[in-house]
Amino acid sequence: MALLAPTPPMGWNSWDCYGTTVTEAEVLANARFLAEHLLPTGWDTVVVDIAWYDPTARAHGYNAGAPLALDAHGRPLPAENRFPSAAGGHGFRPLADALHALDLRFGVHVMRGIPRLAVERDLPVRGTTWTARDAADTTSTCAWNPDNYGLDHDHPAAQAYLDGQVAQLAGWGVDLVKVDDMLAPYHSRAIEAWATAIERSGRDIVLSLSPGTHLSTAHLDHLRGRAQMWRISDDLWDRWEDVHAQLTRLARWAPHQRPGAWADADMLPLGRIGIRAERGEDRQSRLTPDEQRTLLTLWVMARSPLMMGGDLPTSDPATVALLANPAVGHVLRTGQDGRELLREDLGDGELVVWSAHAPTTRTRYVAVFWTGSAPRRHSLPLTSVVGHPAAPAPEKWTVRDLWDSGDGETSHPTYAAEDDLDLDLPPHGVRWLALDAG
User: Fold this and answer.
1) Residue 356 is inside which H or E element, if any?
2) Helix (H) or strand (E) holding 257
3) Are 160 and 127 in contact (CB under 8 A)?
4) In this predicted structure, what is the pLDDT of residue 82?
5) Residue 182 CA neighbour count, 13 Å, CB half
6) CATH 3.90.1150.10 describes domain 339-437
7) How confident is the model at residue 394 (pLDDT cuts 50, 70, 90)?
8) Averaged pLDDT of the chain
9) Strand pairing partners for 231?
10) CA–CA dist 267, 79 (Å, integer)
11) CA terminus-to-terminus distance, the chain
């Protein structure tokens, strides 16, 4: 079996703009935009987030007792009033086929456990003599979503139900499944059961887990053996304090990133969000342009998966240009050993320095973050970012700004190894540089 998620996934997710309410037409509009404008730089996945099975879904919350669309075995089905191609028992197969025809991958969100409605109806578990009541643990519930009970993993009906659910997803052509309410608290047996069900399905499906509120690195080995993505925070929104908090979390998790096992700093609340979302109203992201570059740079240097949260067709061109910057996908896919080198409180803000390197060249990637609310000029010794390697160090380094316009007019200054980098740092901003040896 091929290694799943050998590089961090890049794509679009419906949550930040549409919450529980996204429709098939909106998914396809974003998929076509992604394929036309962003696929060449690595963006290749489209994820339908929570409650696609609720025909009564609304903005700003969840519906207790909703008339969820379920099949005869208690497995969620796409609500046909929102996903008309699902009619006639087709499920998500037509939508998956449409995305695959665009050379995109298709992902869906599901909740941990089994629908309460399936338990109330005592629906049979596919291929067994058990029912949903045998499979359910009615004492295990989600603190923020009313749709499901947990599963009783001491009863074989629980694994049988999950096996049937994942078999259905695999039959639809799903490439990624985001399973929610798994990590806070940490449901180790549910994680293992999902990994088992995916293996038994016979399809390569990336397993993504969320949310990661207070997630500890003590779980690292367990996660690596079973999932390909796991969140390291609660939901992240378009607030500077949310972005700033990820500096510390990613400094902790970045040294542990490896192919097929990615700590996930959450979606990118960029462009047009809040259209029918859980939080806030219809808006362009409240992050400033400098804060947006900080967010993207930090995620890339830490090799977090990138999932764009804004509605692509109606996002501003500047946001699309940030996403399409070739350095974003290139450094995310090829950068190695991304880590924090320096963090210093300068009184009016923190100076935070990250580095990574290219695997086949002598290029170093450097991100110098400034968390202060006013601009700052700072001199940074070149040795603080390139160090003193055992092999002979290059005598000179050519510096490229990875967030420049790319118009070919920007000069690329050359520095001696003992020089300082003199940097103008914007408020809540970053200077993202490539240092080429020679």
Assistant:
1) strand 350-357
2) none
3) yes
4) 98
5) 28
6) no
7) confident
8) 95
9) 264
10) 24
11) 41
Average pLDDT of the residues in 283-307: 98
Task: Name the band, by pLDDT with cuts 50, 70 and 90, for residue 360.
Answer: confident
pLDDT at 51 over 90: yes
- Give the amino acid at 376: R
Q: Which pLDDT score, from 0 to 100, does residue 418 have?
A: 85
- Over range 18-36, report the average pLDDT: 98
**Tell me, what amino acid is at 187?**
H
**Pair 132, 118: CB distance under 8 Å:** yes
CA separation for the pair 313, 34 (Å, rounded): 9
Cβ neighbors of 299 (< 8 A, separation 6 or more) are: 246, 250, 265, 268, 306, 332
Let me know: does 46 contact 12? Beta carbons within 8 Å.
yes
The residue ranges of every structural domain in the chain are: 10-334, 339-437
- What's the confidence (pLDDT) of residue 407? 43
Return the DSSP state at 181.
S
Kindly report the number of other CB atoms within 10 A of residue 311's CB atom.
Answer: 23
Q: What is the spatial distance between Cα 113 and Cα 161, in angstroms, rounded to a whole number?
A: 9
Q: Measured between alpha carbons, how far is 434 from 350 in angstroms, rounded to an integer?
A: 22
Could you tell me which CATH number the domain at 10-334 has?
A: 3.20.20.70
CA distance 283 to 143: 28
Least confidently predicted of 98-102, 123-127, 217-221, 360-364: 360-364
* Nearest alpha carbon to residue 220 among 211, 233, 230, 210: 230
